[in-house]
């Protein structure tokens, strides 16, 4: 199993525990907590079995300095969009599994699972972004904390806002042609964007910080508070709008 296959297998393993759990008896906070824990367990077990020497940075595990000297680091969010998952009837939540490698100084393989849609998107083969449909441009934003810069970007593009949960789901909404851009500010961590950004880049989309600088992974500070993901031809207009 190569690295992308392993990432995809880990995303599927998480889906295999998350879907039955969601359809079981737990609700609300208890369902969210169980989902986070069970998905973490499923992914960690596969990574430990197949890549015992690799380091892991996960939302649901204690971070250590060890990853800063490691050559290979998996960056994992076992359940992104916990709020949407625990609602029981929404599809906008995701599983993130990415690999960062020192040789490249960047993300080199990733998979993002969308269990409620039965899909796993990867860096290889990369998804094909559909053609732009007729109608106004669409900017995906957090449904629970839409930032002012996203409204500004939408206004500058004469676009409509598409409120959705999960950074992974929103990034893949651009990949899958449900949105043309995703703008976030105000807070987020490396695991919220790593795997989705890797898949978006592989699909030919533009990704950066709000100020246009590159998104950097496996740096000491896990806080990576803002990002832009969009069709490449929109990048200049989106970045100008959010500045
Ligand atoms: N202001 C903020 N501070 C910290 N984390 C944030 C944040 N805004 C969004 N996030 C995180 O980014 C992910 C997507 O958020 P949103 O759905 O609002 O777009 C969520 O991850 P989790 O669901 O894994 O916790 C959420 O916790
Ligand atoms: Mg998350």
Automatic annotation (TrEMBL):
<feature type="binding site">
    <location>
        <position position="79"/>
    </location>
    <ligand>
        <name>Mg(2+)</name>
    </ligand>
</feature>
<feature type="binding site">
    <location>
        <position position="192"/>
    </location>
    <ligand>
        <name>Mg(2+)</name>
    </ligand>
</feature>
<feature type="binding site">
    <location>
        <position position="59"/>
    </location>
    <ligand>
        <name>Mg(2+)</name>
    </ligand>
</feature>
<dbReference type="GO" id="GO:0008441">
    <property type="term" value="F:3'(2'),5'-bisphosphate nucleotidase activity"/>
</dbReference>
<keyword id="KW-0479">Metal-binding</keyword>
<feature type="binding site">
    <location>
        <position position="77"/>
    </location>
    <ligand>
        <name>Mg(2+)</name>
    </ligand>
</feature>
<dbReference type="GO" id="GO:0050427">
    <property type="term" value="P:3'-phosphoadenosine 5'-phosphosulfate metabolic process"/>
</dbReference>
<dbReference type="GO" id="GO:0046872">
    <property type="term" value="F:metal ion binding"/>
</dbReference>
<dbReference type="GO" id="GO:0000103">
    <property type="term" value="P:sulfate assimilation"/>
</dbReference>
<dbReference type="InterPro" id="IPR050725">
    <property type="entry name" value="CysQ/Inositol_MonoPase"/>
</dbReference>
<protein>
    <recommendedName>
        <fullName>3'(2'),5-bisphosphonucleoside 3'(2')-phosphohydrolase</fullName>
    </recommendedName>
</protein>
<dbReference type="InterPro" id="IPR020583">
    <property type="entry name" value="Inositol_monoP_metal-BS"/>
</dbReference>
<feature type="binding site">
    <location>
        <position position="80"/>
    </location>
    <ligand>
        <name>Mg(2+)</name>
    </ligand>
</feature>
<dbReference type="Pfam" id="PF00459">
    <property type="entry name" value="Inositol_P"/>
</dbReference>
<dbReference type="InterPro" id="IPR000760">
    <property type="entry name" value="Inositol_monophosphatase-like"/>
</dbReference>
<keyword id="KW-0460">Magnesium</keyword>
